[in-house]
Amino acid sequence: MKLRTLIIDDEAPARERLRRLLSGNYRVELIGEAVDGISAVEMIEETNPDLVLLDIQMPGLNGFEMIRALKKPPLIIFVTAYDEFAIQAFEVNALDYLLKPFTKTRLDQAIERAYQELSGIAEFSSRINSLLRTVEEQQVYLDRIAVRTKGRIMVIDANHIDWIEAKKGHIYIHTKDGAYLTNYTLDELGNRLSPETFFRVHRSAIVNLTKAREIIPWFAGSYRVKLNSGIEIDVSRERVKKLRQILKW
User: Fold this and answer.
1) What pLDDT score does 93 carry?
2) What is the CATH number of domain 144-247?
3) Please, are residues 234 and 224 in contact by the beta-carbon 8 Å criterion?
4) Residue-range domain boundaries for the chain
5) Burial bucket for residue 23 (CB in 10 Å: 0-12, 13-18, 19+)
6) CA nearest 204: which of 222, 190, 225, 216?
7) Distance of CA 173 to the CA centre of its chain
8) Is 90 exceeded by the pLDDT of residue 135?
9) Closest CA to 86 of 121, 57, 117
10) For 86-133, what is each residue's pLDDT tens digit?
11) Buried b vs exposed e over 93-110: b needs ≥16 C-beta within 10 Å?
């Protein structure tokens, strides 16, 4: 059995070098290439590869954001010139990576490891999630989020978000242009978006306070936040005090 493999790198010379180094490896069947994170997500979900050779620094979505956007990540070998903290994260989570420039021998070792990992794909997925948590803990607040719409991947600037909703097991990001699905949980977004801008009004919603037009008194000491779009979102009684402190009313 061969590993059906994709190369994802925005630099043409890097892709060409990988093709050349892989040409003699009997474990690999190269099935395609992508040059940015968005097209990579679409290609992975269309072709369902066994293995992806993934650069980290790319336009559209970087490597970590691309993984987050996937419904079911395949085996991944990072091909990177990334900084120290990321490499340490790979080591902690026992994931393989190739630090540019690398040799054919090092690539062959990584491929062989991926081949051995294939039967343990569930365990690998768990380590991928652990890696994402490790990396995200060391990163600044999110300034963009990958979302899904009509079978496509979009990247939304965090400043363009009106509010975020948990509904029937899914997370929807609302903007003036519509509502979009994301793979993040509400807890993750609550922790990764700037607390100076985003406020969790109750267990199922986060609002962008820069989009708030009015705070409306409601029943039994509760309130609603009215956004510029006109939508009104409940604020739980438990969160009113904190909101008062933030908005100082």
Assistant:
1) 67
2) 2.40.50.1020
3) yes
4) 3-137, 144-247
5) exposed
6) 190
7) 14
8) no
9) 57
10) 777 777 665 788 888 899 999 999 999 999 888 777 788 888 888 888
11) bebbbbeeebeeeebbeb
CA 63 to chain centre: 8
- Could you tell me the pTM of the whole model? 0.82
Q: What count of Cα atoms within 13 Å lies in the side-chain half-sphere of residue 74?
A: 24
pLDDT digits (tens, 9 = 90+) for 170-194: 999 999 999 999 999 999 999 999 9
3-state SS, 126-144, equals HHHHHHHHHHHHCCCCCCE
Q: Looking at domain 3-137, what is its CATH homologous superfamily?
A: Response regulator (3.40.50.2300)
* CB-side neighbour CA atoms (13 Å) of 246: 18
Task: Determine the 3-state secondary structure of 101 from DSSP.
Answer: coil
Which of these, 156, 194, 179, lies nearest to 231 by C-alpha position?
Answer: 179
Q: State the pLDDT at residue 206.
A: 98
* One fold for 3-137 and 144-247: no
Q: What is the pLDDT of residue 198?
A: 97
Give the count of alpha carbons within 13 A of 231, CB side only.
17
User: Which residues is 145 bridged to in the sheet?
Assistant: 156
CA 165/CA 170 separation, integer angstroms: 8
How far apart, in whole angstroms, are the C-alpha atoms of residue 181 and residue 143? Answer: 17
CA gap 76, 124 in Å, rounded = 9
